Amino acid sequence: MKNIIAKGLALYTKSDGLQGCFKGYCEEIQNALIEQSYKKPTDIQEQCMASITEGKDLIGIAQTGTGKTAAFSLPLLERMKQNDRQFKSRNPNVLILAPTRELASQIGESIEKYGKNLPFRHTVIFGGVGQKPQVNALRRGVNILIATPGRLIDLMDQGYVHLEEISCFILDEVDRMLDMGFIHAIRRILKVVPSNRQTLFFSATMPTSMEKLALSMVRKNPVRVQIAPKQPAVERINQTLFHVPKASKINLLLKLLENSDLDKVVVFTQMKHMANRVAKKLQANGFPCAAIHGNKSQAARTKALQDFKNGSSRALIATDVAARGLDINKVSHVINFDLPMEAETYIHRIGRTARAGAEGEAISFCGKEEADLLKSIEKLLKKPIPVKETPELPKVEPRPQESNSSGNRSFSNRRFTKKPKNENFPASKNRRRNRSSHR
Questions:
Q1: For the whole model, what pTM was predicted?
Q2: Which of 4, 305, 387, 390 is the most exposed place for a label (fewest CB within 10 A)?
Q3: CA dist 181 to 68, 150, 232, Å?
Q4: For the domain with range 233-381, which CATH number is right: 3.40.50.300, 3.40.50.2300, 2.60.40.1120, 3.40.630.30?
Q5: pLDDT band at residue 323, thresholds of 50, 70 and 90?
Q6: What is the pLDDT of residues 216-256, one digit of tens each?
Q7: CA distances from 70 to 124, 217, 425 (A)
């Protein structure tokens, strides 16, 4: 008993080190913050705390990596603690929508960490895995439901999810939701959620179309919190470019990875099969890594992310769709193995490094066929990406089926060839037919 009291006093004493709005949270949340070594809130966290705790609608805009998840989850938990009777029922009281499985899982992990000392239950539901464990969790009762739109609607249609008691509705990374075509799913969910709810709307950007969407969801006169970056994330990233033939990209990647400074690297490819191919090549050369893309099972994607986070894998090979929502600390380098088709995606990719105010490195490979893509990116950046001289690489031998010694295409592996003439086997037009023997 003495040990328990002593531990509680120690945590209370340490809470004096908390700054800003963190001092206003209940003791249970403060102790969780101390365990996570949190001391000073970010600007978005500081400015959202009071409004969310008071139950007001809010539109929050801040760039990626500024702590938006904590900005809504911490004051939400505080509000639930203050009004625990309102938030204790078997059906969900809080619904948080996220665009990807990975982001939904990350939000669930944050709720778990911040609310570990509170009596509220939460669960995460998304597609790509069996629904039985998710259904069982819903049957046991949850207070906070984190979901991707597709699986949520699926379970609603089956009668496993009931949203009539939702008092707080949160949309996270809304700009990505719209990019991924979830607007119709969101509107369908909104028809079920009570209209007198609290609505929190978080996004990294706020174009005009999204502004209209936000205002159609929230109540009148929502609180608007927009954090202008002190320094754009792109400006904190050292960007370099290598002009390299497509066939030599893998050798250049292997050459760069010989540098131990590239200790936690996200490599982006355009296609899923290329992600697999790059991962296989790196593994064969002794570089621990894993590929993550839409064709991978959720179990494989989860393991790949976990191995990368804990340092078991040095590199994560990802496509753009799978990489959305990735929030991984201390990514040292981002490598664009293939340039993205859209210039804005380049900004999103390199933003996986230089998070939470840190600096980062972004390296891009550009083949001749990608020249137009490079022009679009540099137009968006309003400056050219500094070019580095490509180091000497092993020569790539041409594939046998692509060329022969004469420089012409080889026809030795043709699928269809002329059947050789057999003198003992007459041509069909001269052969007598005897159908009776085949009946």
A1: 0.70
A2: 4
A3: 22, 11, 27
A4: 3.40.50.300
A5: low
A6: 888 888 999 998 765 556 777 899 999 999 999 999 999 99
A7: 17, 22, 81
